[in-house]
Amino acid sequence: MLYFANPIYLYLLLLLPFLLLGYGLMRWLRARRVADFADAAQAAALMPSVSRIKGWVRVVLFSLAFASFVIGIARPQIGAKLSEHKAKGVEVMICLDVSNSMLAQDYSPSRLDRAKLAISRFVDKLQEDRIGLIVFAGQSFVQLPITTDYVSAKMFLGSVNTESVPVQGTAIGDALRTAMRSFSTQSSKSRVIIVITDGENHEDDAVEVAKQAAEIGVRVFTVGVGSPEGKPIPMGGELLKDREGNIVVTKLDEKTLQDIADAGNGAYVRAGNSEFGLNPIIDGIRKMDAEEFSSVVFEEFDEQYMYFFAFALLLLVLEMLIGNRRNGIKLF
């Protein structure tokens, strides 16, 4: 199957019709200027060496050369084979709270943005581990299935916001259940769930779910985002208010997060402005026994651009050798 490493350059092929139309317009304008001085028969007699066909042949050759060059810079590739890639690591599912309370500005610019930055740096420190991302509020969804594609992980992370989950709330237990179902079938012991939230759980018994996770060998770490004294929630240029008109203040519930971590055989870390808390978790992950994972990937892409460049060069040489005048050679 043919792939292009730089497909954006293929848009340059849209210039080809304009090139041919431009040349045709130039020929038409030149014919009109000649017609002002002489008719067709007189012009042919005055310019016997001028070829009407060679001009079009040259522009067609140049257009083909241009097309071949454009395809070359788009870097066509052919996947040579499918191969099995094996790596040793740990599977990590990150559960990120995207409820409105994460808009509070305990951190700059907000709890959610600070958490996303910390996760991005966390991904940079992974080696051959697998990572997945779950976003949750009143419900939970798999934003990124478990993968070793760290570039895609950062791309999906960048699109996360408080509108990623339509139902508001903070259902940590539901997020834990979704994470437990999202691990690959290849993993049996080296599995970690990291919950990043302010801990204001309103929906379910997250501690009981964390116990269930620990029973099947999944360790649950929690990272508390926010401050115990609390902060208001900016919404639409104003501060969020309840039904009575009072300003809503969201506070960090450290006790709940500590209980979840204890039940999940993990650890609780409170996020700070300088050290968000993921580095100690990384140290804990490094101490776990790595498992071997295998995946089927395309390898050894064969580059094909050199053939298109060579064909473009050949066409340009032919275009220059043809010239604009008749050869003067008659076969009969």
Description:
- By secondary structure, this protein is an alpha/beta fold.
- Helices cover 39% and strands 23% of the residues.
- It has ten helices and 13 strands.
- The strands form four sheets. The protein has a six-stranded mixed sheet with strand order 5-4-3-6-7-12, sandwiched between helices. Strands 1-2-13 form a three-stranded antiparallel sheet.
- Strand 6, helix 7 (206-215) and strand 7 form a beta-alpha-beta unit.
- Helix 3 (52-73) packs antiparallel against helix 10 and helix 4 runs antiparallel to helix 5.
- The mean pLDDT is 84.
Uncertain segments of ≥5 residues (pLDDT<50)?
Answer: none
> What would you call the structural class?
alpha/beta
How much of the polypeptide forms β-strand, as a percent range?
15-25%
Whole-number mean pLDDT: 84
Largest sheet, order of strands side by side?
A: 5-4-3-6-7-12
> Helical amount among residues, as a percent range?
25-40%
Number of helices: 10
Main sheet summary: 6 strands, mixed
Q: What is the C-alpha radius of gyration, as a whole number of Å?
A: 33 Å
Overall outline: elongated
- Number-wise, the strands total 13
Topology, element by element:
Layout: E1 2-4, H1 16-35, H2 40-46, H3 52-73, E2 76-89, E3 91-97, H4 111-124, E4 130-136, E5 140-147, H5 150-158, H6 172-182, E6 191-197, H7 206-215, E7 218-224, E8 231-232, E9 234-235, E10 238-239, E11 249-250, H8 254-263, E12 268-270, H9 278-286, E13 291-303, H10 305-322
Parallel strand pairs: 3-4, 3-6, 6-7, 7-12
Antiparallel strand pairs: 1-2, 2-13, 4-5, 8-11, 9-10
